[in-house]
Amino acid sequence: MPPEMEAHSEQLMDIKPARESDEMEKMKTLAVLVLLGICILKCEAIGHCEVVKAAKWAGLDGYKGYSAANYACLAYYASYYDTSLHNSPTEYGIFQINSAWWCNNSRRDNKACKIQCSALLDSNILDDIMCVKRIVQDPQGLNAWIPWKENCKGRDLSHFNC
Asked: How far is CA 118 from the centre of its chain?
């Protein structure tokens, strides 16, 4: 190969890795956008005011000594208000209600909330709220939730009010 072509060939080879790097960055960006799009389509997050309104509607504001802000705080720390959250095999919905005690995984189950666990994964949180109301009737109350005990109990929750 003539020396001038050889030099030109080396320049092209130097450019190629940069192009591959650009292509890899584009692919990474595309992958992130696709995953974000899937989450937007799949995740159903609501705001704390919707939780407060639902809690008030269900008569939970002041029920067993807990303000509506306590339920908004619980929902925030349990699921970041994601109504479709089902990260573990036993935790469902915006409040991460446990299927071991509260919701039914099969038609044979007859757990305390008398609701299918899958029903806790939609954007209608009224059934979730009614199950929470049942759970709070037990002696542990909101102490049944570790996220509430660690992040909400005994704290100023005024920023969760609407």
From this structure: 15
